[in-house]
Structures are given as structure tokens and as C-alpha cells.
Amino acid sequence: MSTRDRIVTAAAGVIRDRGLARATTKEIALAAGLSEAALYKHFRDKTDIFLAVLGERGPTTLVALLGGLPGRVGAEPVADVLREVVLAAVDFYEHGFPMAGSLFSDPALFAAHRARLRERDSGPQVPLAALAAYLEAERELGRVRADADPAAGAALLLGAAFQRAFLGNFTDPGDPEAFAATLVDTLTAGLRP
């Protein structure tokens, strides 16, 4: 395992246990069996490490799935694709909540995180845009109603997945497959031409 991989793996554990705001680079270095200076040879700061944890140690299905949506336009039933997106989003958000929750309690850390997302042209708007573009392409093919709003459809699906992950911290939200099926069936009833 490379030094960088050791850092990301150690950081994932520390951030899950302590939350991002309370995790320190010193603790991450200790968990990785490295000096704190070694972290800075691979990452600019804790935000950079956190983004690596989300992207490399979290569920990568959502990122890959969204990246492949253009190739699926017109090829598969819209509802099938949307169910798959919802399941991947639920998994991604459930994984990220415990780590990212404390981010909002530290204004300086949150500001740094937002700045880094802007630098990378990343953030929560990216999945929304990708899903909206997919729905727009399906609308252009006539497989989604002409008067449907693709951005609203994307927001409804991903917002519901996000809320389900949030509620999962307080209650048992039930079977994710059933949730995805019901959500998509409800939305697509209004999207069908």
C-alpha cells in the first residue's frame, strides 16, 4: 500500500470516529503510522484529505454511475436508470453523513471545504447537473414529458435520497430497494409522455 493510500485509509477511520471537524492531521498521521509532515507531501490540508476519503474510500458507484449516464440515454428504461441512481445516492449520502456532519459546525473548516470544492469544480451541484442532463436528454428523445423540468426531477430524486440518509441517523428508514422503487415510480408517473 502506498503512503498516500495509508493516509487516506487512516483518515477514513479517524474521520468516521471523530467527525471531520474534530479529526486532526496529527491523529490521522498517528493512525497511518507516519509523521504529520508526511501528510503534507501528499495533501494540501485536511480538506484535501477529506475529499480523497469521500472519493476513494466511500461508495464510488454514484460518481461512476453519473459519469456513465450519457451513454445510457435512450438505451434502457428511464425508471430502471433512476432507481439505480437513487440507490447509489442513498449509499453515498449514508456513507458521507457521519463524516461530513461536523463540517457544518466549524465555519472556518466549512469555508475552506467550499473553496476547495469550487477549485475542483466539485460539490453537491455536480450530481444534480449530471442527473438533470440525463433527464433532459431523455426528454429530447420523447421518453420524458415535454413539459417536465429535468432540474426539478433531479432535485426531487437526489433530495429524497439525501433526506433518507439523514433520517437514517435517527430511525430505521427501511429497505433502500423499496424506497428507490416507490420514489421512482411516483416521480416517473408524472414524467411519462
List the helices and strands and how they pair.
Layout lengths: L2 H16 L6 H8 L3 H7 L3 H11 L4 H8 L9 H23 L6 H13 L5 H16 L9 H18 L8 H16 L2
Helix pairs in contact: 1-2, 1-4, 2-3, 5-6, 6-9, 6-10, 8-9, 9-10
Keywords: DNA-binding, Transcription, Transcription regulation
Protein name: AcrR family transcriptional regulator
GO molecular function, one term: DNA-binding transcription factor activity
Task: Describe what this molecule looks like in 3D.
The chain is mainly alpha-helical and 193 residues long. The chain folds into 2 domains: 1-57, Homeodomain-like (Arc Repressor Mutant, subunit A, Orthogonal Bundle); 59-191, Tetracycline Repressor, domain 2, CATH 1.10.357. Helices cover 70% and strands 0% of the residues. It is elongated. 31% of the residues are buried.
Features:
single chain, 193 residues, mainly alpha, Arc Repressor Mutant, subunit A, Tetracycline Repressor, domain 2, 2 domains, 70% helix, Tet_transcr_reg_TetR-rel_C_sf, transcription cis-regulatory region binding, DNA-binding
Ends distance: 52 Å
And the CATH topology of the largest domain? Tetracycline Repressor, domain 2
How much of the polypeptide forms β-strand, as a percent range?
under 5%
Approximately how much helix is present in the residues? over 70%
Keywords: DNA-binding, Transcription, Transcription regulation
Protein name: AcrR family transcriptional regulator
GO molecular function: DNA-binding transcription factor activity; transcription cis-regulatory region binding
InterPro entries: DNA-bd_HTH_TetR-type_CS, Homeodomain-like_sf, HTH-type_TetR-like_transc_reg, HTH_TetR, Tet_transcr_reg_TetR-rel_C_sf
